[in-house]
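Let us work through a complete example step by step.
Step 1: write down the sequence.
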Amino acid sequence: MIEESKNLSGYNKKQQEAITFSGRHLLLLAGAGTGKTKTIVGRAEYLLRNGSHPDKIQILTFTKRAASEIVERVKAGINGQDVRSLNGSTFHSWCNQLIVKFPNLFGAANYTVIDPDDQLSLMKMACGTASEDYGKTRLKPQQILDIFSFARNTRISLTETIRKVIYKGKHDAQTDEDIALINPQVALLIKEYQAQKSRQQYLDYDDLLLVVANRLNKDEEARKILSKSYDHILIDEMQDTNPLQWYLLQPFENICSLFCVGDDAQSIYSFRGADFKNVHLFSERVANAEVKVLDKNYRSTQEILDVSNWLLDTSPIQYNKKLTASRGTGKVPTILNVANQFEEANYIANTILEGFSEGGNSFSDFLILSRSQYYTRPLQAVFLQKKIPYQTFGGRKFLEAAHIKDLVSILRVINNPLDEIAWIRFFTFIHGIGAVRATNYMSEVMRMAPLDEEPLDLTSIIPGKEGIKAKSYYDAAYQNRGSVKHAVQDLYKTMEFDLAMKYSKDWYEKRKGDFPVLEILSENYGTLGEFISEGILDNSANVAGSNTLGGSKINTSELKDHVTISTVHSAKGLEADVCFVLNVSPKTYPSAYSLGNIDEIEEDRRVLYVALTRAKNDLIITRSKESINAYHQPKNESDSGDGGSAYFLEGLPEDLAVQKSPRSFSANVQDAKTANKIDLDLGMDFS
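Step 2: predict the structure and record it as tokens.
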């Protein structure tokens, strides 16, 4: 007993109660920053020290990296005991292991698991086989795969899946008619895809879960066999599980003990199929289950937690937790009311530079969170201007966007006529020129020497209207090569129509507004070479380790010290001393698209809760003055009609936050006329 007390000395009382739990099933509601991973590690160590065999403990989480980290921490905490057989894995990997271990039980002895690329190839084959049905769907093969996967993971009908995935939940007569028309064709294509898999003995990722789940739910003998293999299953991030994963776990209620760790207040991935109810209704769904709460926060000060707690308290959903700070009190959060995105961006940049220059902060002390990376484009532009190193999580980088790279490719060939990659991108941008012809034209250009003494006449290489188009682009850039700003301006005017045609699907919503930002960036460079090398090429390569990670890559020798710009959905696990949460304005929190749907409104509330709880010492919430001034909430009109809120910060007690406006306007936006022009050109507002 003395030895056990020693082993638990690093845990608080509630963590100890969870670790030493002796009942059948436990849901541990672990609030933000309360040490959930530490507690799940402690639970595994406790079980091992008290006689559980390591090969009868299964740890499940959502990434291989997270599973490996938990297992390694458990092994490091156990001395003198062989725990090499302790298994931690993702749901898909675990099911694959079960199928391999019990091939006859699951009827998949001779199969090959296919990856997403293989799945897409098979679906394309299915669409080719049933080409008449495919033509009627107006969908791409990848969209059909997405529909099928979402339907299986959420266990909802094909009709509702098409509505959610393709039509974003819309309910109107035209949408209903469209869905009714394409539903039978999608079903036939899925059937053909399944037949292709069966003939070639393939299983896709979703099949792995379904094969195991179906057998265990339908076969008592299978459950008996598995009961000999497992005593305990420990599940991390339970709030991110979807209905299919719940269906997989259900049989284990009668096979072994479940120890599930999660936070219903951080369930924000319904667009991936995650089901908030898997945590929120756990005790109702699982017999002999208990619920314990971790509410002692080790990350934030109490003032930050007071705002976060208030946000949950205003919800019609009972979350039954109120976080308290182990660190005590600190600075009251700030609500910053800004005139536009460039005022917001310059305030943030200046705040960071002030803290950095005074020696009190590193760049890595700052975290910036937004609903979308698109919204942060002006911020990224200002950071590049002011040489603030940053990395982005959860979205496409500004300077890596395809439409930006299309324009810059032409500036690159003016700057360096030997840039073969840029020439090929330039030529393939022109409608009607494919990769093979572009390569041939590029080879012709390379044979023309010297290339840098006079402008090229591209009509001598490219015939017809395509050559005329290429010449117009080239000349617009070449004639302004002495001024980066004018080159960007004139080239964009020349290319605008063709850019709009190429990216017609989201031109006005997402792409058009980037070009005024590019123009602002261009003002800081004296030559095309400087603009390309410092402003583009240094920022074009992904940082190793993540295909969604990007950044300014300024000061690459000190890459570890950078500001992090992240979407809230990519912010799990992130924290910082100073956290900016952007655009917490009406029509954003909750989104205008969520109003009228209580489930979507409450998920938006949880998104904001996750953002607020990333801050350790200083929380700055920004919002638009214009949107606040325009916001009115008559009780009989703006209420969503089913308990939802029209604006989450409406009614925030005055003592919980200090409101302020930036002390000075943007150094790059000196007067109201310029500010209004930028707002107009960007087509951006806070709604």
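Step 3: interpret the result. The longest strand covers residues 615-624.
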